[in-house]
Write a sequence for this structure.
């Protein structure tokens, strides 16, 4: 089963091009809800942010507004048993499950963290690999292009231009709208060969549109 998946194309595209500034203004009071999936822009941003600043209690508790117990639990995990940042026992986050496993950190806390992280430039870039599906790796740009392709190309084009198995085409069309590469890779008849063809065609399509 795929380990990573990607948020909706529309949300992802809106975030491309922002830079990580390191600034720390107060998080917006009415931050939009984001869809959190491993490998998504928001998830990568959340994890990168926590690995950078998850040891700063004032930021987590004061600026972002987490429950004090959640903030303290995150700080405790990041600084490790010795309570010092930058030592050998520091804890790091690698996927959303690692964050969710922290005491007092639930969906509401993760939404606040993700919104703050995205608002302050912690996100995937076009050329960052966001996941491997059936052994086929995708950068953020490739993932975005592939999702756009499988959701917009006609069944005839998927068959004739990509030379996909008709059963693969039927499986893709029946599952639309496909919202993540994880979802795509788990469809019947969508294996490494189909994923590689889709990725290649998405790249060619991107180049042709420039």
């Amino acid at each position: 089963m795929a380990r990573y998946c990607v948020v909706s194309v529309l949300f992802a595209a809106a975030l491309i091009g922002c830079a990580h500034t390191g600034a720390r203004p107060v998080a917006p009071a009415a931050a939009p809800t984001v869809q959190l999936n491993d490998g998504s822009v928001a998830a990568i941003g959340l994890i990168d942010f926590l690995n950078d600043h998850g040891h700063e209690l004032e930021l987590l508790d004061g600026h972002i507004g987490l429950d004090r117990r959640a903030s303290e639990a995150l700080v405790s995990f990041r600084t490790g048993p010795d309570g010092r940042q930058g030592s050998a026992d520091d804890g790091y986050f690698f996927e959303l499950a690692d964050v969710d496993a922290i005491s007092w950190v639930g969906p509401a806390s993760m939404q606040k963290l993700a919104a703050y992280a995205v608002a302050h430039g912690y996100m995937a870039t076009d050329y960052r690999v966001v996941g491997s599906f059936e052994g086929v790796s995708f950068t953020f740009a490739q993932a975005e292009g592939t999702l756009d392709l499988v959701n917009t190309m006609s069944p005839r084009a998927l068959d004739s231009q990509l030379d996909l198995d008709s059963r693969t085409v039927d499986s893709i069309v029946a599952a639309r709208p496909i919202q993540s590469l994880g979802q795509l890779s788990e469809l019947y008849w969508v294996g490494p060969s189909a994923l590689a063809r889709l990725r290649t065609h998405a790249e060619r399509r991107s180049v042709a549109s420039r």
Q: What stands out?
A: Residues 1-31 have pLDDT under 50 and may be disordered.
